[in-house]
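hey
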C-alpha cells in the first residue's frame, strides 16, 4: 500500500520560512519522480514543484521559482520542500504526490502565511 505522510506545516509570518517533509512507503521511492502540489481554499490544485527519480533535475512553478527548493533523499525515502520568503498567497494545503496522472498523494499539511 502506497503511503505518503507530510509534515512541517504551520503558521508563519510573511517573509518567513518553513520546511515540509514527506515520508514515502509502499513503493520503490528511488524509482519515482515526485511532486509537491498545493490547494488554497476555494481553488483547484496547483502544481508547485517536481523532481526526477534520482533527485538530480528539479522543476518549479513560476510563482515559487527562486523561493522554494525541492529535494529527494532516496536513502531515507523522503521528499522535502524548503520554502523561503513566504507570501500570504502561499497559504494552502500542501501535498506530496507521485508524479504523473493518477499518482497517489498524501493527506496534506496546512501552511498558513499571515501576520
Amino acid at each position: 500500500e502506497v503511503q505518503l505522510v507530510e509534515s512541517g506545516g504551520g503558521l508563519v509570518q510573511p517573509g518567513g520560512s518553513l520546511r515540509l517533509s514527506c515520508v514515502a512507503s509502499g513503493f520503490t521511492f528511488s524509482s519515482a519522480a515526485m511532486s509537491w502540489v498545493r490547494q488554497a481554499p476555494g481553488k483547484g490544485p496547483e502544481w508547485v514543484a517536481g523532481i526526477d527519480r534520482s533527485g538530480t533535475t528539479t522543476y518549479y512553478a513560476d510563482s515559487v521559482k527562486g523561493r522554494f527548493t525541492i529535494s529527494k533523499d532516496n536513502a531515507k525515502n523522503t521528499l522535502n520542500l524548503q520554502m523561503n520568503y513566504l507570501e500570504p498567497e502561499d497559504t494552502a494545503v500542501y501535498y506530496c504526490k507521485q508524479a504523473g496522472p493518477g499518482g497517489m498523494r498524501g493527506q496534506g499539511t496546512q501552511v498558513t502565511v499571515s501576520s
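The chain has no helices and ten strands. The first strand starts at residue 3 and ends at 7.
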